Amino acid sequence: MISKNSFWVSLKENNKRRIWLWILSAFTYLVVLPTVTAMFISSYKTNNSYLIEQYGESAGMARIRQETMNQLLQIFNGDNLLLLVIISGVAIVSGIQGFSYLYHKNKIDFYQAAPVKQSRRFLTIWLNGVLVYLIPGFAGTVLCLLVMAGNQMLTAEILQQTGIAFFLLLFVYLGCYHMTILAVMLTGNVLITCLGTGVFFLYEWMVRSVLSGYKLMFFPHYSTFNQSDMPYFSPIAMFIRYSEKRSEGQAGILGTVLQLSLFSGIVLALAYWCYRKRPAEAAGRAMAFKVTQPVIKIALAIPASLFAGLIVSNIVGYSPLWNSGSPGFPVFSMAIVVVVVCCLMQVVYEFDIRGILHKKWHILISSAAAALIFLVFSKDLTGYNSYVPKVDRVSSAVLISPYEYSVYGDDYYDENLKYEDRMEYLADNMYLSDIGSLNKLLQKSIDSLGKYSDLSALYEDENAEWYCLNVMYRMGNHKTVQREFYVNMKDQETLDLLDRVIDSEEYISAVYGKMMDTIYQIMEKHADGIKLSYTYGNSIDAGKLSEEDALTLMKCFMEDIRKTDFSETRKEISYGSLEIAVQQDNGFYTMNRHKEFRIYPSYENCAAFLKEKGLYKEIFIDPDEVEKIQVINYNWDKSNTDMAVADTAVYTESMIDSAEPVYYEDTYAYEGDPYMVRQTYSDRDKIEEISHKLYPMDQGGADFTSDVDFDTDYEVIVYFKPESSITASYTGSVGCYFLKGEVPEYVQEDTACQE
Fold first, then answer.
1. What's 491-533 look like in SS3?
2. Are residues 250 and 153 in the same domain?
3. Residues paired with residue 597 on neighbouring β-strands, in sequence order
């Protein structure tokens, strides 16, 4: 016979008061989740049934099955946001409903009169809240697995990963559940509990957003690289980090379990302590403990006001780093929010509108704290912008140069063809040891910015050419320091320092060598439907290479880049590129990955090999392949004046030309522009002369990696002969530029805007 005071009886009695919650949880996990799984499988099969027609019954079904299993693996491996929403929702409802008796004085008296210890009552309610998720959740997961098995979609990998995900999600549930219980213990009614739970979930995110937002607003050397506003003290954020690392093959299950269990355990202990200390008269009040009222109010008012300042700054365009806008509206909004938050919270605390007039010293403290924080950022009282790490405290560093535009030049991927973000790729593979040179570059940036009123003045300086770079220092204490800094590419000392860093073996190995090794690994595999193709050329003329020739050219490239200065290649225009294309048939689609290695005139080994193979070309445009050349002069220097319309005869001629089939579309041209003048050249002598001075538009131009400046006043369209063997990217025509100072005089005269 079971005693009426047994723990089992208490558990059953408590469950009778939570029947509706059990029904809700059971419906979600036992009906909704398996149904959605079955619908997803059916939909995936139906929408991709064309593969059966394309590949045949057997092969098509195999492809559909494989792709469906891949999607299911992602969904039941924790990548499903819906699962996290369901889990956190059930946890919040369970936590509030289980301890809701604390909101009513008469229910508290009833429970306290019962011969049950507080610890046992707390344990009973807590355990029922866990079982409400655990039992239906486990049963629902099993049903989903049975649905997959019935559709022949269940594999050992899916079974294993689903089990791991369910185990981890249990700890996520506990973390959310315990945070809700803590909110219940600190409050006296359900509305305030809901608000408090929301604060627990969002407070850290808001604080981190405020800190990063003000750094971005006031600190010119703040770098967003490798930065995230995702909270650390959040079970959901911990699980998301695990999922991200798992997708990268770096997940540590035990570490994640330890973090989640430690977090949920500490929050539970704090909630139980508050439960024991909670006074009975707290029922119905906004806050259970009066001592927490001013602390919570001030802790909310300060970041709320600063957050409002950020939002208003974005609305009115206040950006002190760029000398834009005024701080008036942001500061005014911060003051208003401080007052409103403090007054509203005091009204809620007292449940009396007259509370708006009470505790004014809370407003003063919050206002002073918010103003101080704003001042710290605006005046850089912490010395953030002037900080340069000491060399002996840095173990290694990463330099992230500006994005170099090229068709495929910044594609990085691993041996499994998984795409890797450029910045993350370099951060994982670059270990620079020349910290002294990086520090000098950072210090030069700090000193230079002190001479300008703002960043707009920096970029308006005609005597300088500024580019923004990122550096990440790996400190000896396993922490990292990120900084954004500015370099003047017209400063010789800056170029010398960049040469030392960019020409180092650590930099070359990370940017080029590691990717080369990956390509070698893929070439060795040649499996799983992977196809490789090798092309050498440019946007005008390109041809296939054999694998042997590609390997030789890759070797020559690495030899040349190791003995060529960065500042030297900046003065050159790349005359060709080695492009490596990788394709893998995944059933539903073909995965494409590319990598481009640009080759410059100073690369002696590459030039010798290309000459040996008859692939080397000193000019881009072969005049013998050209039918005609059309030059468009936009006359930018005239377009902002009150000039008359261009000469009618010249413009009429251009209109006739534009009526012909044009494959390359003008970048800026539009019909009726009064200053734009076109001229077409069919004379062989002029075609010969002009062709030697032309460069394809996508071959560069002035940027961080190139000091070569095109004259963009003139746009040139080269039309190739119909019988030409040129494989132009623009199907018969290509857009080109002249270098500045190299436009033939007769072209300038022919396309000048007539007054």
1. CHHHHHHHHHHHCCHHHHHHHHHHHHHHHHHHHHHCCCCEEEE
2. yes
3. 578
Residue 369, CA distances (Å) to 172, 216, 318, 373 in order = 34, 20, 21, 6
Residues 629, 549 share a domain? no
Indicate whether 455 and 569 sit together in one domain: yes
Mean pLDDT, 10 residues at a time, over the chain (755 residues)?
Answer: 57 75 88 84 74 68 74 67 84 91 81 74 90 91 88 82 86 95 92 92 93 94 85 88 72 82 95 91 85 92 96 93 91 95 89 81 94 95 94 94 57 82 88 96 93 88 91 89 94 95 94 89 75 88 90 95 92 90 74 88 94 89 92 79 37 35 45 76 94 86 84 92 75 88 92 78
Distance CA 294, CA 364 (A): 12
Categorise residue 701: left if φ over 0, alpha if ψ from -120 to 50, beta otherwise.
left
Same domain, 46 and 19: yes
Neighbouring CB atoms inside 10 A of 227's CB total 14
Its pTM stands at 0.82
State whether 587 and 633 are in the same domain. no
Residue 67 sits in the same domain as residue 185: yes
Last residue of a domain, one of 588, 612, 636: 612
Element (H, E) at 276: helix 253-277
User: Which residues constitute the domain of residue 640?
Assistant: 623-750
Report the alpha-carbon distance of residue 710 to residue 697 in Å, rounded.
9
The distance of Cα 354 from the centroid of its chain, to the nearest Å, equals 48
Is residue 673 in some structural domain? yes
Q: What angle do CA 502, 508, 513 make, to 5 degrees?
A: 165
Task: State the Cα–Cα distance between residues 574 and 706, nearest whole angstrom.
Answer: 9
Cα dihedral 232, 236, 242, 245 sign: negative
Q: Are residues 518 and 634 in the same domain?
A: no
CA-to-CA distance for 191 and 151, rounded, in angstroms?
A: 45
